[in-house]
Amino acid sequence: MRARIARARAKMKPPVSIPPSPEGLRLRGGAPSDTGVALVLLCQWADDPADTVAHTPAAYETLLFSQGQVSTGSMREYFLESSYGSYWVEGQIHGWYTQPTYDHGNYFRDFFEAADPFIDYSDFDRDNDGYTDAVWIFHAGPGQEETHDPNDIWSFAVWGLNYMTDDGIIIDRFACNPEMHADGSIITIRVGAHEATHVLGLPDLYDYDDKLVTSTYYTPNDSNDHPLVDWCVMGYYGYNIWSYGTRQDPSHHCAWAKKELGFVAPITIATSQKDVEAPEVQLNPVVYKVRRGGSQEFFLIENRNTESTAIFDHLDSDFSAFYTWFEFGQNPKDQGLLISHIDDAVGNNTDGPNGPHYMVIVEDAGYDPANPWDGVDEFSAWWYPQETRLSATFATDDAGQTSFTPNTTPNSDWYNSSSGIWITNISAPGPVMTFDIGFGNAWPAITSWSPAELDTTVELPSIVSLSVVVLDEDGDPTTYEWYENGGLVQSGPAASYDFTADTGGAVDQVLVVATDGSLADSLEWTIRTGTATGVVADVGAQGRPILTASPTPFDRSVTVEWALARGGDARVSVHDLSGRQVAVLFAGRQNGAAMSRVWSGRDELGRDLASGVYFVRLVAEGVVETRKVVKLR
Question: What angle do CA 176, 139, 209 make, to 5 degrees?
Fold first, then answer.
């Protein structure tokens, strides 16, 4: 790394974006055009030269405008991916230009003047509005945001410069980026993408009030200085300033930023719906907007899949450094349904405790004020440093993170009133996630059922006991309607129903509808009935209970049949080789008729058990009968 000459530069608080008014940076003339043309100026000083041998204009051409050549991604690739191919960036590299020394108050006007005779600034006004579309400066040296050296420049964006060029084109906005990283390697786009988004008109989405301590990122009197953490390039860690190192690529724009830039048009959900599909937002322009009543506030919902094939948005900010599995730059981001709370009326995220609340904040699925972080549990509210939250997503990966309702922590209330929004039954993370949403009350959800196999085959004579377990987040009483082949056969609070298979060769449909009065969930079994095996038909002649289990070995399921010589209590259970009970197939009173159950090789919680030997055990009429079954993979 070249030696740097210390220079007297103003120490600038992060971030150093200069808005023209308190409401901050906003888009000029709406969303960006399909093509952005950037003028790139390479700037150095006589008392602090750049490494012009290693960092040539051609190197920045590759960094900014190439495709498939930069391992951590180019600027063109970043905006193409974040905009779903709609926003193409191109430009020209000019420089290196040299001035005597850095003048903070000049805001690079001296470089614009030096370049003016050689540049036709109208080439960079593609939309012919009299302003340059984009100006990106790359200056000698690393950035203070990485080195924390006050002699270095903290990267920033300027808006409202109003510099008139010789060509009659105004430079109103520009982004200032470092030449290189602290180790002397050419800079990557992690900060440049953030500053370029400022030039497009978006504000910072982190809180840079005066209490922020940049050496520790700890703010003792502020409950959350990082309302988006690393979920947005405009958040503090989205352009990947870490407390333990730097990653070389930026996070995606969050749903709010993509909406503002015109990259997505959120789909409004205004009615209760089940199984809403959310494909991964990195590759699909699908964002849901949820607003209720006359509130100015709303939620944005997006599926962030960190296992996506997208170029960007995979690794987190490495605030997991206390964990044994920590490895710099290699820890995957949390993944799942990201829910952001938006209040556009606030106007920015930068007022800190002086403002009523943030404009954009991630609803942290892992946040629980009653259980502060203990240094062990990955999703226990507080991250390092203690005032920085993980901002976890919602998914089945972690207990308690499958719902966002008036009863959860955090809850779905607006800042000063109830929203009445119930987002429940959130699925596992992946390329496509699903969720239910209710307005006013929650959908009841059938979470488990027996038999587990919805296509079940039984033999005559047989009684199949069907049951479901329902979760209703708002606690409304649930009514169950049971239908055989379309006809209602049972209605009431019973979550179980005994189906009698009495016709060989029949195919029956049994449907259960669980309703809380206005919303419902349903499940249907197909029951195929064979003919009597004859094994249990002669139970009377035997004078004792009969137990069979077939087929064995089995792959998907095994049918367990039994019959009693006399009526009475019976219990049929499954045990592993150690004798531990893993499932109960029946427990109750029955008459002498034969009964059957289908066991799918799962335990009582629905978890798939390992392959191996299991024992089916019947206890009835003072007798214990046991049959061995073998489960295959």
Answer: 40
Angle between helices 57-65 and 75-82 (to 10 degrees): 10
pLDDT in tens, 195-215: 999 999 999 888 765 444 445
Instruction: Rounding to the nearest 10 degrees, give the CA dihedral for residues 379, 380, 383, 385.
Output: -170
Choose which CATH entry (3.40.50.11810, 2.30.130.40, 2.60.40.10, 3.30.70.20) describes domain 445-529.
Answer: 2.60.40.10
What's the pTM value of the predicted model, to 2 decimals?
Answer: 0.75
Cβ–Cβ < 8 Å for 563, 533: no
User: What is the reported pLDDT for 208?
Assistant: 60
* Cβ atoms of 205 and 342 closer than 8 Å: no
Q: Name 48's bridge partners.
A: 45
CB–CB of 209/175 below 8 Å? no
Give me 66's structure tokens: 């190439």
CA separation (Å) from 78 to 38, 81, 123, 189, 249? 15, 5, 23, 9, 9
Sign of CA dihedral 199, 201, 204, 205: negative
Q: Where are the alpha helices (DSSP H) in 221-285?
A: 255-261
Chain-centroid distance, C-alpha 341: 14
Q: SS3 of 438, please?
A: strand
Whole-number Å distance between alpha carbons of 433 and 421 = 19
Pick 539-631's CATH classification: 1.10.510.10, 3.30.450.70, 2.60.40.4070, 3.10.180.10.
2.60.40.4070
Helix and strand numbers (H, E) in the chain are 7, 29
